[in-house]
Design goal:
This protein has helices at about 40-65, 110-120, 120-130, 135-170, 170-175, 175-180, 185-225; strands spanning about 20, 30, 70, 80-85, 90-95, 100. By secondary structure, it is mainly α. The strands form three sheets. It has a two-stranded antiparallel ribbon with strand order 1-2. A two-stranded parallel sheet has the order 3-6. The chain has a two-stranded antiparallel ribbon with strand order 4-5.
Length: about 230
């Protein structure tokens, strides 16, 4: 079977981004549809949201460095306070945590979930920014859906991690600095993590809106191209 040579955009009657190429045996195969062009404004918005997510990530890592940590059972982990009943007749000494306990001074075990949440929050921002350089619509659609999954998980995980960090630092933030000497580090570390969570949540909400808009555009693009007389579907 004779056929004319393939040139991009000729398409054999199909749209430019749904052209067919000849195969051996006289058959033709449709090329995967190209992704729709993304406005330059979306690129800058994606870059801004990526920068916001990276700023939140840096704040989270810095908070992990600042928070006081100690090895399980070491004397520098605890301080003692006197607690009494409301009548003041019965009192006893209680141990409180002046630092985050872990198997060593790095605190990676106790802060593991929070560290994972900070890293995972960068992934959707990076994915949705890289989408601007993807040329295939089906690949773009897969990346958008993956980004949405990460965004949904990250929003829940970051809020849970705030409660986790609040619990770990409650004693050293609640009790006065004259009891243990770590009040400043605990307050600053917890505040930084709250700032990181706010930045990442704003970034994720912006990314979710952008992903929904882009996903709708890509879906319409795929439907329009696949319904343009392609008998190979």
């Amino acid at each position: 079977m004779s056929y004319q040579s393939y040139t991009p955009g000729s398409g054999y009657g199909l749209p430019q981004d749904r052209a067919r190429v000849p195969l051996t045996g006289g058959h033709v195969q449709a090329l995967p549809p190209r992704a729709p062009k993304i406005p330059s404004l979306n690129v800058w918005v994606g870059l801004t949201l990526l920068g916001l997510a990276l700023f939140g990530f840096v704040c989270a890592i810095w908070s992990f460095i600042i928070l006081p940590k100690c090895r399980y059972g070491e004397p520098e982990c605890y301080f003692a306070v006197k607690e009494c009943t409301y009548t003041g007749k019965e009192c006893h000494s209680a141990f409180k945590h002046r630092a985050i306990e872990s198997s060593s001074s790095h605190g990676a075990e106790a802060l593991g979930i929070a560290i994972f949440a900070a890293i995972a929050n960068v992934i959707p921002a990076l994915l949705l920014f890289l989408i601007t350089f993807v040329q295939r619509a089906d690949t773009m659609y897969s990346m958008l859906e993956t980004g949405k999954v990460f965004i949904a998980a990250n929003m829940v995980l970051m809020l849970l991690c705030i409660h986790h960090i609040e619990t770990l630092t409650h004693d050293c933030r609640w009790w006065g600095d004259f009891h243990h000497g770590n009040s400043g580090e605990c307050h600053k570390g917890f505040t930084l993590y709250c700032i990181a969570t706010i930045c990442m949540c704003i970034s994720n909400l912006g990314l979710l809106y952008q992903a929904n808009v882009a996903g709708s555009s890509v879906s319409r693009h795929l439907i329009r191209n696949y319904s343009a007389g392609d008998d190979t579907l």
